[in-house]
């Protein structure tokens, strides 16, 4: 047994002392940063259901405009987060920024809904999508049995958790490879569509604005669908502390990733519109598969394979980044201390990864986990609005603070106004979902008062907490990182 392990096991208290040698390492370069952003943004959405934008906008022309503007808006948001990420160079993304700007209660409420709904639900649905497309060839005439889909989803979640626990470089190599794979898939779609377009098939574009729905509510819903497909642009901010030269590589990764994703998305949608009619696209639940069936003939099987690869890479990136969110929350004292522990050999936040895996597996037990997605958009948009309002507040509160990246004030103002519109609109369009979302957020207040705000806890509760932390430390061979960050 190594000297470090002997030291760890020699004393129970030793496991819960900060260790200056054990901390998350800066192992992510610029390519890894780009792979995380692109790999998480490009999940199943662009392959499976671009019809959401078309259905709400009504026309091909307006739909393409929405895709372009959604990309530009996401770019503005990412640049605002670049300022936040370099001014507050801590991992945790929105949690760290909300905590810095508005204090512990709003930050805890974000952590609470991220823990219960946002992160594990997104991961569970991504894993189920992966399993669905992997198993579909075995059931060519019907849907695969849900139990088989759920079992495979659970296996892949556990596998990726093990990879992320074992080695950061392994996780980033997986991310790099599968990001390349999904870009290759979209390039194939674009080339095939352009080939058909060059051959003279232009009838779908003769009246591009035909059937346009001009009502503001439907246009907003179209933007919701478009922005949902770009979601993930802020995930690199979750791992800022592991990024080499974050002041340089964070904005560079954003400048590379966001235009790349926007161009790919727009060209992919043009390819879809060239090959598929408006009615065919609206009738399809998996647009890329329908595209492949119509155009690729005997090679059409590659589209379900590429969808599976895309979801696999997106799930890996989400597990890697979001586990750091819970790690930072625990380090701040907003979750059990055990989740802030780092493995002494691998320098990975193993308890946080295992904890996230467990919560995600629990959600897989829910028969209709997809129903939770109805509550995600509003809650996520609300906290994104809070984060960007934090940027504006910090400009007033700390005008002289060091800002290695400082965007023009017009960008956060534009982003804040649009986010505010996207937050208020659902109150009229889908009040039930908004109500449930607000209940989820408010339910975190008593948890905060009991476990965070209440300082004079009874001795038995403190002993239970210490025992749990100690068991996790010994089980996973972990210690707290350098105490200098625990403030």
From TrEMBL:
Transmembrane segments annotated in the record for this chain: 28-48, 60-84, 105-128, 148-168, 180-198, 218-240, 252-275, 301-327, 347-366, 372-395, 407-428, 434-454
The keyword Transport appears for this protein: yes
GO molecular-function term, one example from the UniProt record: L-amino acid transmembrane transporter activity
Main location: membrane
Bilayer disposition of the protein: Multi-pass membrane protein
GO cellular component: a single term: plasma membrane
Location(s) in or outside the cell: Cell membrane
Keywords: Cell membrane, Membrane, Transmembrane, Transmembrane helix, Transport
Keyword Lipid biosynthesis belongs to the record: no
Protein family according to the UniProt entry: Belongs to the amino acid-polyamine-organocation (APC) superfamily. L-type amino acid transporter (LAT) (TC 2.A.3.8) family.
Protein name per the record: Y+L amino acid transporter 2
Biological source species: Cryptotermes secundus
